Amino acid sequence: MIGALQTAARLHAAALADVQSALDPAADQAQAIDGIWHLMLWVCVPMYLLVMAALAFVVWRARRQRRERGDVATASEGSLYNGLGIWVVVVMLGLTVLTTASYLVDRKLIPAQDAQVKIRITAKQWWWQVEYLNDDPSQQFMTANELHLPLAQKTHVELRSDDVIHSFWVPNLSGKRDMIPGRVNQIELTPRRAGKYRGTCAEFCGLQHAKMSLLVYVDEEKNFASWRSAQLGAAPSPGSEVLEHGKRYFETTTCAMCHTINGTTAHSLAGPDLTHLASRSTIAAGALPLNAGSLAAWLSDPQRQKPGTNMPTIDIEPDDLNALVAYLLSLK
Length: 332
Known about the structure:
By secondary structure, the chain is α+β, with helices and mostly antiparallel strands.
């Protein structure tokens, strides 16, 4: 029986690979949570079955005794009291086990101060600002809506909110942690399996709450170092007239009032940093895949793609739109 259940659990975990699921842990923190989940399952299911069995037995016995003697005899009260005493002890032991395990898991989830990587994530309506921190300011950089983590290294994540209450949740890596305006929360992530994982806001935060996802990439150490080095660089220079046209349009219109592209005159932090936009796989916090068609649709009418977003709709001529799309897709 136990072997069959374990086999079923393994098959279930395999089916959930690459899916947002707390039952497919890929980090130390998620593994600890998964462990206590299974402990509670193995403790609570037998307890539930015992309660149901006891209830069925009591009902059956009461009906039989009423048929035989018209009332419940008092001779069995002694055994009833003994049974209740044993049951109280069993319940207390179960609760003690669960309370102790919960305490130990909570201790494991407390962020340490020896993390190799430090990140600040600020939740906004409805996207994620991601800052990679460093004691050397020249080694700091900012991105948006995607998080890269090095495999098998502790990452300390500082969580903030700029507007309303949000909640950071990447179930494959750890539990939920609220992001409250005016307060700094913390979480630690130690991934143990490379891959792509989906995170989301787990606290209703407004109209587009459902379209506020965060992709998390766990990279091998050398791949993470390569990605980090590329992110520290400025945006590539335009290599054609079309790209130059797109850059000029970006710098001289309302685009520059909200966004940053390092190496240009655009340095606003109102919207996502676009310095290496083309290195990401989605736009608008996972609302659309990143390609020429979806990017053009987003730039032309963002309110249609994500109603309520703070990005305004601007009138843009077809030639300007094509040049702008080409320029943004060159930012790798």
